[in-house]
Design a protein that fits this description.
By secondary structure, the chain is mostly helical. It has helices at 2-8, 15-30, 35-53, 60-84, 90-98, 102-112, 141-149, 151-171, 176-184, 225-228, and strands spanning 129-130, 133-134. It starts with a helix and ends with a helix.
């Protein structure tokens, strides 16, 4: 809800919007006690304020670079921890604790079931039960895709997302849908559902990789926003 508000208030994120999101952040900490969601929402507030204050759009490349870096680093860290998680190593244990055991769960499924290039159907297994969780529960978009959809699909999908960010950095263009995708980047580390288009409308920005309305020059870039604006 807060990300939807931030996207609708793109470059016009004001004091009331900030107060509302901070209030939601406090509620998230107090009631569901979700550390990861609270941190993600804090990221949304900070980026939204920076984007709004950047009236001349001089920080487009910086903001897009932050999003690209988050996706790239969190992908490498997620896959590494999934494959090599060891609760005996304190730094790994602390990361797993911060993300509420998500790394341990991913490691369990990685070691216990086949890993295939086009995924494994966990719904066919009736006895998936691990530390109180029943069924395939991996709340990390990178690990979830790697295991259920396949490592080949995971690598291709996130390579496309990184290429998309690089293209937008080159063109110095931060559109509303790219802004939405940017706000969701830290959520990849803690939510598998972030790859559902019904959750993350920013995924429609992948269309820009095939969109012929983008001009190739770095300056004077034009996009048919009236036709293609999503939000």
């Amino acid at each position: 809800m807060c990300i939807a508000l931030a996207v609708l208030r793109f470059r016009h994120f004001g004091i009331l919007d900030t107060v509302f999101c901070i209030a939601c952040d406090v509620l998230i900490i107090v009631f569901p006690k979700s550390r990861t969601e609270a941190l993600c929402l804090l990221f949304v507030v900070v980026i939204s304020i920076v984007c709004t204050l950047d009236k001349e759009q001089k920080r487009n490349r910086l903001l897009l670079s932050i999003g690209c870096g988050i996706v790239l680093m969190s992908q490498m860290i997620s896959i590494y921890l999934m494959k090599n998680y060891d609760s005996g190593k304190n730094w790994m244990y602390q990361i797993n604790k911060i993300v509420s055991g998500r790394i341990d769960l991913a490691n369990h499924f990685y070691l216990s079931y086949p890993v295939k290039p086009f995924g494994y159907n966990y719904s066919e297994i009736s006895d998936v039960w691990y530390k109180g969780w029943q069924g395939f529960v991996v709340d990390n978009a990178f690990c979830h895709t790697y295991l259920e959809e396949g490592y080949l699909v995971e690598y291709v999908l996130f390579a496309l997302i990184i290429v998309l960010f690089l293209k937008c950095i080159y063109l110095n263009k931060l559109t509303q849908s790219m802004y939405c995708l940017l706000l969701f980047t830290p959520v990849f580390f803690c939510e598998g559902t972030v790859l559902y288009i019904s959750v993350n409308i920013g995924l429609v920005a992948l269309n820009y990789l095939l969109d012929g309305t983008w001009e190739t020059q770095k300056t004077g870039v034009s996009i048919s926003q009236e036709k293609r604006h999503i939000v």
